[in-house]
Amino acid sequence: MTDDVTPADEGDLSIREPPKVLIPLAVLEGETVPKTLATFLDPADIVVLGYHVLPDQTSTEQASMQFEERAQETIADVAAVFEEAVETRIVFTHDRDQTVERVAADIDATAVLHSNPGGSIDDVLVPLRNAIDADRLADLVATLVAEHHVTLWGLQQDGFDAAAAVADASERLTDRGFSADRITTETTTVEGDPIRAIVARSAEFDAIVMGESEESLRSVFLGEDEDRVAEATVAPVLVVRDRDTGDDS
Amino acid sequence: MGTTSDTGTNRAGEQPTTVSSVGDEEGKASVTDDGTELERTIGLKGGLAIGIGTMIGAGIFVFPGLAAGQAGPAAAGSFALGAVIALLVALPASELATAMPKSGGGYYFVSRALGSLAGAVVGISIWLGLVFATAFYLVGFGNYAAAVLAEAGVPVGGGLVTPLAVVFAFLLTGLNLVGTENAAKLQNYVVGLLLSILVVFLAYGGLDTVGVFGSVRTRETLLPFGLFPVFTTAALVFTSYLGFAQVATVAGDLKNPGRNLPLAMVGSVIAVGILYVATIFVATSAFGSARLETFGETAIVEVARQFFGRPGAIAILLAGLLATVSSANASILSTSRAVFAVSKDALIPGTASRLNLKYGTPHVALAMAGGPVVLLTALGEVEILAEVASFLHLVMYGLMCVSLIAMRRNEPDWYDPDFRVPAYPLIAGVGALASFGLVAFMQPASLAIGFVIMVLSAGWYVYYADDVQLKGAL
After folding, report:
1. Positions of chain A with pLDDT lower than 50, given as ranges
2. Distance (Å, rounded) from C-alpha B177 to C-alpha B191?
3. Does the distance separating the beta carbons of A93 and B103 come in below 8 Å?
């Protein structure tokens, strides 16, 4: 990384903001990070969040008395899968989503991992379907996808200019020294639910990087977009966080 | 997990355990010595739902008939008196809870301010106090379940009340053992629904009573039996206010406790206090207290029938089922937290706070709640159950007020509450006197049972844990 150059410089072949990836794991339920995924994520700063969700009738204090040591040991094992030293946190909670959101905001994470088993990671899909923090996305992809291939796929819908978003993301990637011949760009016009289209194509890829979902009627009934994608595919899903969210929600 | 060395051990060689005292991230999570975070997940709404949900079952759906029978229309005064006493205690409890936002509630404050003997007496009696309260709510539930069957045309006598209550005692304990997902969220909705039904019912009934819709209802003298029954009735119906301190038992899980704890405690007392007084007013105006008494525990259903016909009766029956179940369930949960708090401090064996590995629930503590609840429910004595529950809680409330005075007169370094009671010697002093004073108006049988429980608790402490030091240990 070059320290002397101001990050805002056009054409600077470096990462603007080193990406930080939050990995939430149900640590006492045996969730762990596969070696292939750890290798893929290693270039980023990693924070492993081991959480344990308790039934309402159990106080967090009570659970920590009994399970804290086991949780610490388990998370140390998970951390050892990574080459670089990673930060670990343990949280006892009654609400998983609240905990993940709080910690993500606390460490200002670039992206949150929705873990899936997955295999070795060569082809990465970046579906662009709504506004996304393009700088964060570029930082993340350029850092992680060192030798592999990335597909920028714009999903054209009402009120979203997919072609422009794809061109913009592609430019930001090459700005960071990402070679253009490792980028595939395409645009599709989708009718209806873009998530269904993403799920349908996900089998061709080894990992998916996408933006946060917007509140919509659909997400109220079907669940958050990223959860739907993560549930329907075997590939790990990284969700890029918008910059100032999660603080007071 | 850190243990302090100078706190002494119990007969089994266990020491009090201290957890999570290091830090707090803006009231969103507390942090233990080892850096583990404990997420705070209950908001103000959740806190109010615990307080209101625990209380509302009794005052509206069980007591109106009994109270009106004892004190006449002035029973409304008994409920108001109960609310005032509850508020006098809720304020000191709020200050103590914001200074010590730990799970355990009243027991925790008393043990830290007045030492382990007082702590043990309160801790063990509050466990049993909650057991009595739960049994009382369940008997109330049994009455409603039987009334629902009767309404549906199933021929049942009063003989079915106790079996129904006992079956439900088993069911609730079992459900809590295997872990009910989203129980807290469900509680929020149930309380919301209950409040809506009650507000509509009471608003219509209230307007009708003052003559807006024409018919002027029963008029009777305010104090048909004199002033004394107002106090004895207040002692009986005080069970309707036991829930507010239960908010403090989940203090460790409450977001931003400095703000939300006092608001939830005081807010829930005011909310249910108004509803109770309005209910008695409407109910005694509709029927007159003598007739109301003959309807017994489900008197409010007849009041609804009077105003709205059969649909009204059915709505209130269902509301009564929901309210009594939610009160019983909230109390079982509080009981298990109360047991955890004393067990953590080595006043009872540590096994009591073990969690079940499969379900993550405190199965020993829940069994210590559910087991005696089943037994007491089988007795089916509503008034004795209610009074003993009140007795044991009132002793704790009185001692909480004393604790506040003790803390303020000699503030430890760590004592830094976000909320300070104005004119504390007056409020806490009157709160303590009122709490102890109310006990004096109870039936001799209730007094005897309560007293024996306290003596046994003290005896247990001397036998098992008289070496344990808790005073001033945060």
Report:
1. 1-10, 245-249
2. 23
3. no
Cβ-defined contact of A102 to B29 (cutoff 8 Å):
yes
Domain match, A89 and A180 both: no
ipTM, two decimals, is: 0.84
Q: Give kind and range of the element (H or E) at residue B39.
A: strand B37-39
Residue B117 lies in a domain: yes
The pTM assigned to this predicted structure is 0.85
DSSP lists the bridge partners of residue B23 as: B31
Cα–Cα distances in angstroms (integers) from residue A177 to residues A12, A135, A172, A212, B352, in the given order: 8, 14, 9, 26, 61
Question: Does some domain include residue B33?
Answer: no
| Residue contact A55–B29, C-beta within 8 A | no
Identify the domain containing residue B342 by its residue range: 38-464
User: What are the φ/ψ torsions at residue A114 (nearest 5 degrees)?
Assistant: -105, 105
Domain limits for position A105: 20-109
Q: Which of B39, B357, B363 to mutate to test the interface with A (most CBs of A within 10 A)?
A: B39
What is the pLDDT averaged over residues B235-256? 87
Q: Total domain count for chain B? A: 1
**Residue B295's pLDDT is what?**
87
Q: Which of A62, A71, A98 sits opposite B362 (nearest CB)?
A: A62
Residue B53 is which amino acid? G
The verdict on a CB contact (< 8 Å) between B361 and A60 is no
* Residue B12 located in a structural domain: no
Domain membership flag for residue A55:
yes
- The answer to the question of residue A178 being in a domain is yes
pLDDT digits (tens, 9 = 90+) for B276-319: 999 888 888 888 888 888 888 888 999 999 888 898 899 899 99
CATH number of the domain to which B295 belongs: 1.20.1740.10
A12 lies in some domain: no
Decide if B362 touches A, using CB distance below 8 A.
yes
